[in-house]
Request: fold
Amino acid sequence: MNGDPVLPSLEDIKRTKRYAEKASEIGSRNEYNKKKLAINLMLLEIFEIIHSNDEGKYQEAISKIDKIIKMDPKGAYAYNISGALLARLNKLSEAKAKAGSAEDLAPLWAEAPCGTGKILFQEKSYNEAEAKFLETIEKDPSLSKGYYNLAKLYNYIGRVEEGKVQIDQARKINPKVPSILLEEMNNNFLRGDLSKVKRASEKEELKDFPEALVARSDVEFLEARENTQFDVLQERYLKAYKIDSNNVNSILALGYFYLRILDNKKAADFIEENYAQKSGDRPIKGKTRLKRGKTMLKRECKRLFNRCEKMAPYDLRGMTGDWMSRGGEVNSSTIESAISKYNGSAEVYTAIGRYYLAKENYKLASKYLKKAVAEDDQYMKGLVLFMEANKKMGKEKKNVKLISQLSSDANKKDILKFRKEITSYLLLY
Reply:
């Protein structure tokens, strides 16, 4: 669960839940069976909440898992799930304690160190997280999630060639699991292998996953910078959104697509035609028509990003998108509020830097991205975007010095090798 390639489909969960409810109605004279049935029913309800992608419901899921722990205090699985749920709410100290209990209760269970590793990854303790994922692989080399989570970690910190090795191994074990295929697409994107991203998006296993269609749309957006097929691109992003309108990634993708075309002069006709509505019986003409279209498009952006912030309050992309759709300056109180809300100020500084990069205020972008690198020089997004800000200001010499000073040698080669491709990808969101 929680990003691993093992959570049942929502359809399977609902079907199994119906059977469990019928069995519960029939009842059992055996107390052990009664307890087991009640636990399984609550687990299915928890999985439904996870599938909803609505973090506002996670407290309800935590209450259910707490009940399970009382009913089965030696069940390592319950502590493992509890840790994952608490991590989603950014309660990392509590999450680590639960994950630690799972490891203590089941020292031979490979799932337990994997759960701890994911929390350490979220905490930005990359070396410790790597050790836990390697421990998972050592305890059970046939378990794909050890390789899968290690690939996610390596992709995140810029060790994308090592990420490819790990995701290839995960695919050998589970060649058709959607989450593994999606992470493989992410790795191909970071390495600039866009043709593989497009081919992967057409796989039968990913047809119901909006993330695959979003990835394909992102590739086409990068490839279509010189043409004006905005209607085709909008249709693709909308299709991903309609597959699952509660999917945070599809909501963000549509919102950021609109943001990217707002200041694109080539998109003026598209904006006018699709978003400049008539005022009464009189059509809007001239410059007023484009202004009206942009106003309506900004409103749609704000709606999408506000929805994302409510559904996934700890996803910085929603907050950054909201800043950009409003077009205002980021003041000190906004920054302080963001840092207090999100785990890891490096991500906050990077979000602010990304905002100013989009506004072409490279001096302010460099200021905040430099702070991001100072906080965490293994956080690839902050590092690569800082280098982009330096490049825009004609200060590439700073980048040479920056790379030489990295605390981790492991990601230097990959970042230098794939910097252009990685930058193009990271600037999308």
Observations:
- The chain has a mean pLDDT of 87.
- Residues 1-139 form a domain with the Serine Threonine Protein Phosphatase 5, Tetratricopeptide repeat fold (CATH 1.25.40.10).
- The CA atoms of residues 165 and 374 lie 29 Å apart.
- The two ends are 25 Å apart (CA to CA).
